[in-house]
Amino acid sequence: MLVHRHKQVQARTRTKNQLQALALSQGVQKKYKLWTAMGRRSWENWSYLPYATVRRQRLLATLDALEAEIQALNQQVEQEVKRRPAAVRLRTHPGVGPMTALAMVLTLGPVERFRSAKQVGSYLG
User: Fold this and answer.
1) Cα–Cα distance between 46 and 94 in angstroms, integer?
2) pLDDT tens digits for range 55-83
3) How far is the C-alpha of 36 from the C-alpha of 107, rounded, in Å?
């Protein structure tokens, strides 16, 4: 699940990069502001050449689908974290979110197999 989520986040980044390139080709340079609600509305108002309009619509549809899937995966990760006491405990540390906690628990397995924190660090690289 975590690997699939990671792949979907990468696909979302690629889609955003393609949209950003499309905007730049139209002389629009708003960087992160393109991904706000107002930026999204402006996407739909810009006039493009015919194929660029179709491309924009397809990329925006792809982006919407990826956002929905990533959101659903985030909820699944949250549920999985709640079922694993070690992951819940890890989340109490500042900066450790659900993805990091679950990935660490799944990667390490039973921590009792390590004799020291140094071995854990060595195992994780």
Assistant:
1) 42
2) 888 999 999 999 999 999 999 999 999 99
3) 35
